[in-house]
Design goal:
Oligomer: homodimer
Radius of gyration of chain A: 22 Å
Structural class of chain A: mainly alpha
Order of helices and strands of chain A: HHHHHHHHHH
Strand content of chain A: under 5%
Number of strands of chain A: 0
Largest interface: A-B, 46 and 46 residues
Shape of chain A: globular
Helix content of chain A: 55-70%
Chain lengths: ~290, ~290
Amino acid sequence: MQRTTSNKMVTLLSYGKLASKGSPTVEEESKAPPTASGPVPLNTMDSHVNQQQDLQVFTVGFFLAQLLGVLCVALAGAWSGHYLGGFAWQSVPSLQFNYHPLFMVIGLVFLYGDAILVYRVMRNERKKILKLIHAGLHTLAFIFVVVALKAVFDSHNLAANPIPNMYSLHSWLGLAAVVLFSLQFVCGFVSYLFPGVSQYWRAWYLPVHVYFGVVIYVLGIGACLMGITEKLIFSLKSDYKDLPGTAVLGNILGVVLVCFGILIVYLVTTPQFKRQSLPEEENLQLTPHSPIN
Amino acid sequence: MQRTTSNKMVTLLSYGKLASKGSPTVEEESKAPPTASGPVPLNTMDSHVNQQQDLQVFTVGFFLAQLLGVLCVALAGAWSGHYLGGFAWQSVPSLQFNYHPLFMVIGLVFLYGDAILVYRVMRNERKKILKLIHAGLHTLAFIFVVVALKAVFDSHNLAANPIPNMYSLHSWLGLAAVVLFSLQFVCGFVSYLFPGVSQYWRAWYLPVHVYFGVVIYVLGIGACLMGITEKLIFSLKSDYKDLPGTAVLGNILGVVLVCFGILIVYLVTTPQFKRQSLPEEENLQLTPHSPIN
């Protein structure tokens, strides 16, 4: 079925505006589909799916999440770029380290968070496009993560007195998050972007992909919190307790990361915000058995 | 409606055994209820609800979670009781501290984790009983958390050189978890154990209670991970990188805490494991709008 141009052009803002607070829920709609005599939503031509969902809360949450996400990146930038001494590459390994927190926050938190939101934000877009944007954002996130890892390993190995790698709990759990992210990336790519993979496998893997997507995200934020703790204690030592600017900013970065994470997980797991299938997808539906709707 | 004694006596193990792998899902059952001519499950007399659900995975997950939970407590006990020097109360503030990690792991992780699982584990029990067990386990968890806080504040305040309180990211986020836990405790108690509270309020608050229940739990585990990181760096300093026994055990404790958390959240959020209403509850059902099914 061919979709209209107007449908493609529906923007995120329209979802919130067009869905009224008192509209029936998805479940109510599915039990009692609107009849010809019932009220006809205004946006029938633009959005045949989302008229059934109350997405005002989602829209507000999405914009708040973007604000918090940008704030996370800005705080991480200010923390590493100013308070921890700024940036350099291999010429000054101690400053090369500073790419690690900034790029992890950009990749594993901000871009990753937006990547897992894609299906719920661009809900009128075709699934093929959504998959490509989801994979594209994750690819970008992955590049930042790899450079962030290169920065921290270089900063350890190239130091005048080399620092051992992979001994702290932060490094164990951080690497676990990155390894799981890589596995998830490969499995997701093979399962959903390669033609010829069976519908049975795609349906079986979907809930695993969704649940571990959220697990890796939360684990990544947890690793950031441990990393901030480590860096503040290693660099400030007993001065941490006097809460100098570096400590205040690092702590605030941690708090904002947690707020961003709580909001993203809320937006991505609330069943009421789930994207509904487009008409042309309905015959192709998988039968997901998702642990998080 | 009076329930039979045999129904009350159904044990957890029976759920897994009685539910067959190939049985229809809850959704399928609700669409096509079994007719008189259809196959009659063996456990009709014992469990009129759970026969519809495949709970083998849940049962295995539950027992694995108990193993991991006990392992968390054992590792925290060995870490604080042996590697960090053992226990004392106010006479030796530095050892009084050691109650902090142990009691937080017992309260905020193990007991809290089991408390949020109650509805899915004791699924044939009446809702009133489940609420009391849920509240009872949380009360026990809360007592451990309060003693754990007393231990850390005392260990700071009573030290020969008093240590400031509440400066680290661990303390900020840990206290946030405890404050949210307290609020959740009071709101849950008033909403669901006080008679006379309106069904509308109970239904409105349920998804908030459920979502923040999981958020507080994950935040609590995150605070534990930061706490382990802090304690290892403060106590071992540059020896952390040589991974002595204290460091290995602390790191392993962190990894097991994460595994326990991932499993508990899986068991408590997977829609397929959700407790179904008992017949006598069906007329009293709230209309939950839960962000996590």
